[in-house]
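FW: tagging you since you asked about this chain on Friday. Here's the raw sequence from the shared folder, copied in full. Didn't touch anything.
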Amino acid sequence: MNAQEKRLKPNRCLVALLCGIAMAQCATAQDFIKGGEDHVTFNLGGILNQFSTTVRLNGSTGPGTPVDLEGHGLDNNLSSILASGTWRWADRHRSDFMYFRAKRSANKQYDRDIVIGDNTFQANADIDIEAKAEYLLLDYRYSFVKSEAWEFAGVLGVYAGRFNFDASGTLAVSGGGSGGGAGTTATSSSSTTVPLPLIGVAADWYIEPRWKVSSMLEGMKAKIGDVDGHMVVFQLGTDYMITRNWGLGISYLYSTLDVDVSKNSFNGKIDWSSNAILAYATLKF
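HL: got it, structure written out here
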């Protein structure tokens, strides 16, 4: 072997090594499901919510007292289980869902009488409040722009959440109420579904087959039967696939709801907003 061949041998080895690495990376990338070609995606994890909520429950004779739930002592930061998913049933057509729930309770003494429903609760006595909220978001997306790197879609959705509100305490001397005479303990209980339509846009950026960034904005003001209000939802997040079918994701979710309800089961107003961080495992096929 002459001197020139000896010098070329290490270079050839280096080139072969680099080619091998490049081919391995290419094969690995091709093994992941390309952006926009997934059929079913399911996410399961946790959500940390920061709430701001005011509820007013009216009675048969007049409006109730607006109650700041976080000011009453209900947790303004609460974690719970989150489930969401996507079914891509045609190339440009998708259906999505997201669900979580929150249950909070606390008691507080007020320096004045407060009216909740048909009950006037006594000042300086403990008032127990429990609030349960279920968040269910359903939507349909049509991708009017779709490429290997980008997907832009129009969104038609519905918020179909449910809200339960219970308050109990000692009735005021002058208030009375449906629970009995002054000095007795009574409970005001109300629950309602809050169906509101939503319209918006969504965008997905497929950085590479295993990594995407997505965002969504939707909202609307509408009156549906006995429910009159508006809602806005914004989400921004990223998913990273560790294997072909399993990955991890994290998102930020902002929601705000302002609604008047005039039902027999709930007559009043809900003013609710949430800042949330979602962390989840994702399964993709």
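FW: The helical segments are 3-31, 69-72.
HL: agreed, and The longest strand covers residues 185-208.
FW: great, closing this out.
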